[in-house]
Write a structure and sequence with these properties.
Two copies of one chain form a homodimer. Chain A is mostly helical. Among the domains of chain A are: about 1-65, no CATH class; about 70-275, Clc chloride channel (Orthogonal Bundle), CATH 1.10.3080.10; about 560-700, Roll (CBS-domain), CATH 3.10.580.10. The first copy, chain A, is built from 30 helices and seven strands. In chain A, the strands form two sheets. Chain A has a three-stranded mixed β-sheet. Chain A is elongated. Chains A, B: Its main location: membrane. Chains A, B: This is Chloride channel K. Chains A, B: One of its GO terms (cellular component) is chloride channel complex.
Chain lengths: ~700, ~700
């Protein structure tokens, strides 16, 4: 064996030296094991060992530069950007294949019909069957579940790797079904990002061991920001999204990691587009060219506010229909049994139905159904007035002209097409929301809002052909209205303000920041009136997921409900002077890992907690040594850092538990232990009120 | 008296009806009082009463539409925008007067010298003497104090109306001193906004009475956002500022109010500019015209990252010098005694010194000292390369040409001017920070960063005259580097990321969002390395203000320190069976408003609290009725909703107290009361560690 050492003495000396310093036998044994494993015929032995030495030095230098967690954040950003880019590429190829096939069959209406309808139907069926056979939890957007996990509920299936795989493949199929199914990618992407984040956190935790300073919760908050950022290349709105959607209290120490990871994701995503030759430089996703000198006249702000009102009102209709159809699907015995047993068939059927309506030779011709989602948004954000193009078609570039022709087919005006699109798409979108497959609902809503804004903008352009104040040369820009409408409608549906920033970052238009914010605030005010639940809250309520902020929003009484009546019994309780028999009994009859210790069972003043390991050590010691020792002589009782009283309100409990990130808090009354509160109890307290709430809802509706 | 009723019977009937409904005597008496106060000769009695009726109806309709707090937020935004606009106008007039006087004296160097130096010296002296004679607390930016107030410390002088007045007038004087003194307005403006917010909250609280749902803390968080928003017309960065600077946990329910108020402020501020004819439409404050097609080549991102590193390094120098000079001024007996007794003289002298250096016939000629702050930033953000102008001066418009001539005086290159500016301004800025007058330090830092970026940009433009990759037609845009540098340097000095967004919103440039964020993140990483305190933290530490997040950042050990050794004695404690004598004794010897009640004094198990009022009622009852009753028979003991143990860490205590917004929390050990924790104790725990920290600092330096 000594011969092996000869070839790389310097490294080995280091190793031996290190082993001697540490003074442990195990390390040297390990060294020998490594060395004995190295077969003598392996080539470039000295080179490899030198490289290994360098790698260790680089690793140490990197860890000097920043903590391990920062590399995890960067890796998360880059991974998600790569995933987003590959997904976009695949979806674009599949969509182009469909378009090519459809145009090849020109002249054969029946074949075209089959191609148009069966392609998305098959893809949706595939998406459903694949995701459900691998991981049934991968259906839907996953955002309400992520919110529940972030607020402390344990839903381990939602962060598993099989779910990641199922969701990724399912989402690609869903997106490839195109604009007839009309579903997006943001929500599942945030979920995917959370799964990758959870996986990275597990690696980080195993590398750091016990001294880790960041919890999984921190990583998930960061991952949510990365999800949005790498989906649109929009870092700031990603951070705002994770602030306002993901919890009720945002810890400012997550702020820098969020920004860092989001910028990594957004930059990688955009650089990938540059590398693939798609774009010339790092640019916005849907870059617009609005006039910058006078983007809008000051009086137009009133119209933008009006658009906010309109978007708010339509969002109420949409949210009501969405809740209604989800409840109907669950309540109707026939449909719910059909979905429960034949998910794939149901998906295929609904997708077929959606494609039937959008078939270009049926209603599709009057709702621009041949455009993909990307083309839809690009055409709606075009700053040229469509009305003026009708008179002079040379105003547009060729690529834009083909888009415009879809909106203004021969024998029909743009107003009619936009109107048809708005009326029909709303119901199609509501129907698509029942599909049991991985899908996002943000982008469709965003596009719908853009169409709503465009409709108003084109109408105003018709009314004021020379602009609002004719003495200046600026005319009305319907693209600006589309942008504002998109942000306002998406904000109203989700009850958030981050779509405003998302619209800015996606288009690179900072001229309209004030109108966008005004319209989004107004539409939010309308859609939040009367404590209506948001899109996410609606799903949370129907799926009975415990997301307290949304429950409080839906049922404001809850915030003043006292926790007293939801307190759970504390389970197995030990007393200070507990002897062997009692401890043995508790260990046998309970599966908990932590037990509260009280003064005596008669006067249960809470002293603290002991762990299962401590109890087992106690039993071991008492069996081998002295028999008369009691629990408190052997175990260190860890004091409970926090005690609540039964009079604390549900809201306070939620605040405290989410800030301190404690999973269980003891409730004492006059110092006496009377039970404990875990997330289950907070959930059940919320659940009871939700049920009564849903009940009253049913009665009123 | 009955005659008075005759003329407006309908309203009076309403009133009577209302009074009968309420069934209280006091209301009718009040009604009569109001009516008897109305003199019979007052004109348009019926019209006035009708108007009053309408006003009440409008008020009710408005309250139906939204809660009273939303009107307060809107009022706050509009008021601050108005204040900002009027301040800008006044300052611009005073600056123009100085400029006019200086140019009138052309040819008389001595007179010009006196005009150049005495004008700012007098204004600074005036600012100091005015603000100190009215309210000594109005000096400085006020941001560190606001952070302390928001984290729960009581500093009532900092929110008084006299402080508002002193700060407003003092700030106008400071800003009018111009670019030789080189101070800004953001910090004091956030403070002003907080004062107005606190005043509005007092009105809101008195209108709502006991049922108010919003605390003063909520209003102050909103006011901070409004301060930044109405100062620059930048709503989003205002909200981000209030998230990251003002506390350690951001409550998401403040998010919508923050945005709403910030948008109100920013919109009003920009609309005022439109109304005054300054701008044609709602536009960014320092609007830039960067090329939008290819704003930068992808390889330039590396240079932007380098700029981030550079800004981070320079910010470390600046922060170190700033802390050093503040400590020096406090430690040097001569200077500190001079400042303590002759603040006005000191201000005048320092301003004179600053003006002496920047006098155009001394060093000022080679550092563009004739430009105002606004002109400085506009000229630095110009996208044309200054180097190329030297060859072809017709590239610029006339207004820009005069600015450029300041940067490139005859016989000197732009590089030399920029270099002189960078070297001299740093020390002048550090010196200006010692001035005891209301002033902000954000804008100077922002401009300094812009100059730093411009210097790098011009250097790169010299090295690569045809752009980084010569096959495309885009050349290097030094204005982009200036923008990135400004955001990165301001972010590094304040340890925040909101300057990145601030730069975007102030210039309306969304093309550079990714470079700005990258550079700001890198410069932040550099300046935060080795736990150096930020600009605000440095002031907090030197002023010994209790801002825990900054203290934890400066002294990371603190987060794991247990609260046990800082627990204060609980003061006067009552026992459950306390009799008259004991209660009387406690009431006489203590001034507290709340007292803890324990089981017995021997075994002090905490039961809850009683208030002083309850105790006085108890004494009254016991004197008039039965003598044998004890405390618990008469008073309802309110249970303590929250108990901590001595093992809780300082950080946890801070989290919990800031989230629940409790001012005092009881500490129990095994159910027995052992003391309480208020903000004073958290502060003292922090203070002790700060002192040791400052101590070690002194030793090392």
């Amino acid at each position: 064996m000594e011969q092996v050492y000869v070839s790389y003495p310097s490294l080995d000396e280091n190793k031996r030296h290190g082993a001697q310093q540490a003074g442990t036998q195990s390390e040297t044994t390990q060294d020998k094991l490594i060395i004995s494993n190295e077969r003598p015929w392996k080539p470039w032995r000295s080179a490899r060992s030198r490289i290994r030495g360098w790698a260790i030095r680089v690793q140490n230098a990197m860890l000097c530069l920043a903590g391990l967690e920062w590399y995890c954040y960067a890796a998360l950003g880059v991974l998600m950007a790569l995933m987003s880019f590959v997904m976009d590429l695949t979806v674009a190829k599949l969509l182009r294949a469909h378009h090519w096939l459809y145009s090849c069959l020109e002249g054969h209406k029946l074949l075209q019909f089959l191609c148009w309808t069966l392609y998305p139907a098959c893809l949706c069926a595939l998406s459903t069957s694949f995701s459900h056979s691998i991981c049934p939890q991968s259906a839907g957007s996953g955002l309400p579940e992520m919110r529940a996990i972030l607020s402390g509920v344990q839903l381990p299936d939602y962060l598993s790797l099989s779910n990641l795989f199922a969701k990724l493949v399912g989402l690609i199929c869903t997106l490839s079904a195109g604009s007839s199914v009309f579903l997006g990618k943001v929500g599942p992407f945030v979920h995917l990002s959370n799964m990758v984040g959870a996986y990275l956190h597990r690696m980080y935790a195993s590398a750091c061991g016990t001294k880790q300073r960041r919890t999984q919760g921190d990583m998930l908050v960061v991952a949510s920001a990365v999800g949005v950022a790498s989906c649109f290349g929009a870092p700031i709105s990603g951070v705002l999204f994770s602030i306002e959607v993901m919890g009720s209290h945002y810890s400012v120490r997550d702020y820098c990691p969020c920004f860092f990871a989001a910028v990594c994701g957004a930059l990688s995503y955009r650089l990938l587009a540059v590398c693939s030759g798609e774009q010339e430089t790092v640019n916005a996703l849907f870059k617009t060219r609005f006039p910058t000198e006078i983007p809008y006249q000051p009086p137009e702000i009133l119209f933008f506010a009006l658009l906010g009102l309109l978007c708010g009102a339509v969002s109420c209709v949409y949210l009501f229909s969405h809740r209604w159809i989800l409840r109907f699907v669950r309540a109707n015995k026939l449909i719910s049994r059909f979905i429960a047993t034949e998910k794939t068939l149901y998906s295929g059927f609904v997708a077929f139905l959606l494609a039937l309506v959008t078939f270009p030779y049926s209603a599709g011709s009057s709702m621009a159904s041949q455009l993909t989602m990307r083309q839809l948004i690009c055409s709606l954000l075009e700053s040229t007035q469509w009305n003026s193009i009708s008179h002079n078609a040379t105003l547009l570039e060729e690529s834009q002209q083909s888009l415009w022709q879809e909106w203004s087919p021969p024998g029909s005006s743009v107003y009619k097409t936009l109107g048809c699109f708005l009326i029909i798409k709303l119901w199609l979108l509501v129907l698509a929301c029942t599909l049991p497959l991985p899908a996002g609902y943000f982008m469709p809503v965003f596009i719908y809002g853009a169409a709503l804004g465009r409709f108003l903008g084109e109408g105003l352009a018709y009314l004021f052909p020379n602009g609002i104040s004719p003495d200046t040369l600026s005319v009305i820009n319907p693209g600006g209205y589309a942008l504002v409408g998109a942000a306002a409608f998406a904000g109203a549906v989700t009850h958030t303000l981050s779509p405003a920033l998302c619209a800015l970052e996606m288009t690179g238009q900072s001229t309209h920041v004030v109108p966008i914010l005004i319209a989004t605030l107004i539409s939010n005010a309308v859609s939040r009136s009367k404590h209506q639940p948001s899109f996410y809250d609606g799903i949370s309520l129907i799926k009975k997921l415990p997301h307290l902020p949304s429950l409080i929003r839906a049922c404001p009484k809850l915030s003043s409900v006292q926790i007293g009546r939801f307190v759970a019994p504390a389970g197995a309780v030990l007393q200070r002077g507990e002897k062997m028999a009692g401890v043995q009994n508790v260990l046998n009859n309970s599966t908990e890992s932590q037990f509260p210790v009280v003064d005596t069972h008669e006067s249960p003043t809470l002293l603290g907690t002991v762990t299962r390991d401590q109890l087992q050590a106690f039993l071991l010691e008492i069996q081998t040594e002295v028999l008369c020792k009691s629990l408190e002589d052997v175990c260190h009782i860890k004091p409970a850092t926090l005690q609540l009283s039964p009079e604390t309100t549900v809201k306070q409990v939620h605040c405290i538990m989410s800030v301190v990130r404690e999973q269980r808090v003891f409730v004492t009354e006059n110092g006496k232990l009377c039970g404990l509160i875990t997330w289950k109890e907070v959930r059940s307290s919320a659940g009871k009120h939700t049920n009564t709430h849903t009940h009253t809802h049913k009665h009123t509706s």
